[in-house]
């Protein structure tokens, strides 16, 4: 007992010493804060805070003590946290100039060296704009929407009794990505690819102690298998494209080396495809699941949404596919989408590294330090959104000044600047189409309690099981 107390005290002393050393050596005015214990810093506090249902205990507590810019020490490094919209914007806009994106080595091993998330400089610019043009709204309208509609319907057709919504949403999202990237319809091959791929994804959530875990080793093995499967496809398609056959998908664009600057190697293309699969998978499926959860808990919003979608169905007949015009006539759905993105914050914030000493708001962020721009902290701040922690899609309605419409600077679920998510429109369309078919086909009740947690990612603990029942739309009775 005494031993542990003295150990604790000496750790405490050592950490304060490091803190003062860091401060005095460079005579910088760091944002205020607490570096916690050496090595682990405040990592354990961070993890335990996000395992609760309250989304922001870690940040709330520190913002109350230190203000919206504070210093902490997590995952082995001193880190400056920003919960301030201006600072966040400054960080995002100065990507590549004052800050650069920064991921732990365990993540880069899984993503591959050539993934967009890890690219910098000119190559990043070129690949980012290639991805943007692959997923822009005219491409979605003219090419993707048909498949999104068809594959969502196909998946829902098999639902009966109890389903784990998160599992089903992941299956849908994966099938959509594979279709959009390489034009494959769901089949045995895509299903076996998905099984390996799920193992890769699990590896991402083993940080911060990745290297010691079997999950991580299994993920690395699975990555090799997925990469092999994908390179086979790339080789095949390269042969086809040399014969002049071109498919209208991401792989087609990559093989042509669109965007100027020559073609890409097979390895580059594989890494790129894999990173796109990762970027859209967990995010879009979680947002699908959470939208349903929030709606279930807000019956008024669900009723209003149902009205909007039943009206679209009544206009179109039972099995006609959704068209772009239909998507564009879902005003309340768009409020629900925004409100889900705001409250759920799948990507709670972005990590960057200061490329030089950066002065901001009277403080200095030293060169080489980690920075975390918390998007979530801004979304959940009562100063920017009234009753910020309540799900209220109505706040997005026009002429409603209780919070959101015109919240440009405060609402950034997709980040901003040169790294702004290129999938932002695609994610919105996929969620809207999914909600449309779910709501017009089924009614549901939760099959048991399920809690929202925020570590290692935002998700529900039990994959959100629901009991579904087919709605019988009784046309002749409607007169
Ligand atoms: C609800 C769904 C989604 C959310 C909340 C989301 C959020 C984000 C955020 C916040 C970033 C910025 C990361 C940073 O600045 O470091 C990002 C980047 C990215 N997202 Fe998404 N995303 C979603 C869906 C998608 C989809 C469907 C795709 C597939 C096309 C996608 C592809 C990407 C890519 C490739 C990047 C990296 C961009 C770059 O570094 O230049 N995302 N996403
Ligand atoms: C979308 O990208 C395509 C090329 O892939 C381009 O021709 C088109 O102009 C872009 N549309 C918009 C709205 O940016
Ligand atoms: C405005 O939003 C509030 C809640 O945020 C809601 O109670 C109210 O009904 C909305 N008003 C209009 C006109 O949509
Ligand atoms: C949803 O948020 C986006 C910003 O990401 C905004 O442009 C759009 O107008 C919002 N939609 C509604 C219905 O308020």
Average of the residue pLDDT scores: 85
Low-confidence stretches: 1-9
What helical percentage do the residues reach?
40-55%
Which fold name fills CATH's third level, the topology of the largest domain? Cytochrome p450
Name of the CATH class of the largest domain? Mainly Alpha
How many distinct beta strands? 12
Structural class: alpha+beta
Bound molecules: protoporphyrin IX containing FE, 2-acetamido-2-deoxy-beta-D-glucopyranose
- Major sheet description: 5 strands, mixed
Q: Do you know the CATH architecture of the largest domain?
A: Orthogonal Bundle
Strand content: 5-15%
Can you say what the CATH homologous superfamily of the largest domain is?
Answer: Cytochrome P450
Strand order of the largest sheet: 1-2-8-5-3
| Morphology | globular
Task: Note the main attributes of this structure.
3-stranded antiparallel sheet, 479 residues, 11% strand, binds protoporphyrin IX containing FE, alpha+beta, 17 helices, single chain, Cytochrome p450, binds 2-acetamido-2-deoxy-beta-D-glucopyranose, disordered N terminus, 2 domains
């Amino acid at each position: 007992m005494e031993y542990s107390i003295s150990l604790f005290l000496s750790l405490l002393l050592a950490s304060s010493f490091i803190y003062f050393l860091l401060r005095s050596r460079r005579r910088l005015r760091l944002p205020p804060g607490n570096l916690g214990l050496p090595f682990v810093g405040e990592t354990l506090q961070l993890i335990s805070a996000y395992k609760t249902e309250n989304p922001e205990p870690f940040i709330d507590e520190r913002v109350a003590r230190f203000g919206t810019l504070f210093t902490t020490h997590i995952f082995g490094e001193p880190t400056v946290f920003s919960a301030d919209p201006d600072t966040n914007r400054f960080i995002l806009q100065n990507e590549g100039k004052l800050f650069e994106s920064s991921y732990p080595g365990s993540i880069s091993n899984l993503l591959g060296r050539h993934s967009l998330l890890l690219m910098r400089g000119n190559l990043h610019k070129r690949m980012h704009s290639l991805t943007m043009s692959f997923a822009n709204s005219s491409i979605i309208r003219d090419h993707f929407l048909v498949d999104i509609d068809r594959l969502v319907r196909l998946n829902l057709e098999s639902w009966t009794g109890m389903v784990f919504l998160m599992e089903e949403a992941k299956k849908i999202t994966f099938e959509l990505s594979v279709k959009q990237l390489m034009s494959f319809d769901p089949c045995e091959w895509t299903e076996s690819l998905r099984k390996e791929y799920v193992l890769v994804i699990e590896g991402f959530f083993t940080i911060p102690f990745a290297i010691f875990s079997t999950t991580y080793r299994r993920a690395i093995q699975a990555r090799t298998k997925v990469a092999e499967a994908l390179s086979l496809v790339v080789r095949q398609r390269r042969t086809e494209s040399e014969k002049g056959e071109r498919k209208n998908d991401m792989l087609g664009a990559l093989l042509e080396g669109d965007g100027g600057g020559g073609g890409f190697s097979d390895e580059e293309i594989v890494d790129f495809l894999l990173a796109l699969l990762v970027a859209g998978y967990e995010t879009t499926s979680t947002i699908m699941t959470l939208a349903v959860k929030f709606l279930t808990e807000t019956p008024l919003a669900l009723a209003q949404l149902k009205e909007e979608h039943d009206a679209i169905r009544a206009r179109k007949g039972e099995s006609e596919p959704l068209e772009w015009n239909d998507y564009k006539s879902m005003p309340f759905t768009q409020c629900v989408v925004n409100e889900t993105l705001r409250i759920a914050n799948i990507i709670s914030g972005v990590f960057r590294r200061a490329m030089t000493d950066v002065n901001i708001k009277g403080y200095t962020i030293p060169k080489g330090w980690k920075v975390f721009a918390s998007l979530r902290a801004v979304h959940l701040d009562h100063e920017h959104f009234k009753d910020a922690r309540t799900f209220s899609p109505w706040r997005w309605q026009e002429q409603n000044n209780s919070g959101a419409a015109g919240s440009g600077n405060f609402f950034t679920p997709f980040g901003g600047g040169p790294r702004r998510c290129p999938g932002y429109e695609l994610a919105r369309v996929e969620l809207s189409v999914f909600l449309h078919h779910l709501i017009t086909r089924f009614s549901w009740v939760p099959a048991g309690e399920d809690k929202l947690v925020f570590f290692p990612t935002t998700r529900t603990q039990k994959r959100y099981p629901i009991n579904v029942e087919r709605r019988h739309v009784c046309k002749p009775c409607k007169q």
